[in-house]
Backbone:
């Protein structure tokens, strides 16, 4: 019900801004004003207690089919890490330089559902990093015996957003300034029947990764602004 209301509100905002959008057509891409982004260079293979597995038979769910991936995202990165206790975390990052509506990053609720997963327990959370808390989402995706708790956020321009409404507001805000925002989806997940254990390990993984990313690269992954209070 809440999702439906959000969609109606977002639709109304888009319709009300249609006339303005004609007069103010976004033409300046933020991506062209930023240093070139190389996910493979930003995300280390080893950090904290985590080591990348060179190969794994645990399947990372791709957000979309390859053809659509190439259309929406200019870069994607998928890795699986393991810590000293044997706990595995799957990391998936997708970056797109053009966040116009047809090319916006797709949230996990959408792409997991499209592949047959049942989505439940959606919750807005805050992850406490050394510098500041950042907004994120927890969702649980289940397909047969596979239970996959997920932590994710979306970066639109400099803003971290949660949910369809915040994502639309951020994109619209940049558009009214004549700017086309870039966008990034950051997602970590675990195959774990115990969601609490999964989220605890995912939070630690994110904090360790934040500490390991170079200071001048953190904003590309973790943003600098939020669209709402935590």
Residues:
């Amino acid at each position: 019900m809440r999702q439906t209301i959000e969609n109606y509100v977002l639709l109304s905002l888009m319709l009300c801004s249609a006339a303005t959008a004609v007069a103010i057509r976004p033409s300046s891409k933020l991506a062209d004003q930023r240093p070139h982004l190389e996910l493979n260079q930003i995300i280390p293979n080893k950090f904290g207690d985590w080591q990348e597995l060179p190969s794994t038979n645990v399947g990372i769910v791709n957000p979309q089919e390859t053809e659509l991936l190439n259309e929406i995202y200019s870069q994607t990165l998928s890795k699986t890490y393991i810590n000293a206790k044997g706990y595995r975390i799957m990391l998936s990052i997708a970056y797109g330089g053009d966040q116009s509506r047809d090319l916006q990053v797709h949230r996990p609720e959408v792409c997991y559902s499209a592949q047959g997963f049942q989505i439940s327990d959606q919750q807005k959370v805050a992850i406490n990093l050394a510098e500041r808390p950042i907004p994120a989402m927890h969702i649980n995706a289940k397909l047969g015996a596979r239970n996959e708790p997920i932590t994710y956020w979306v970066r639109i321009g400099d803003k971290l957003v949660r949910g369809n409404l915040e994502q639309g507001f951020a994109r619209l805000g940049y558009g009214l300034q004549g700017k086309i925002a870039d966008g990034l989806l950051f997602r970590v997940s675990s195959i774990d029947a115990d969601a609490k254990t999964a989220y605890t390990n995912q939070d630690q993984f994110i904090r360790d990764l934040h500490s390991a990313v170079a200071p001048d690269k953190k904003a590309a992954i973790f943003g600098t602004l939020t669209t709402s209070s935590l």
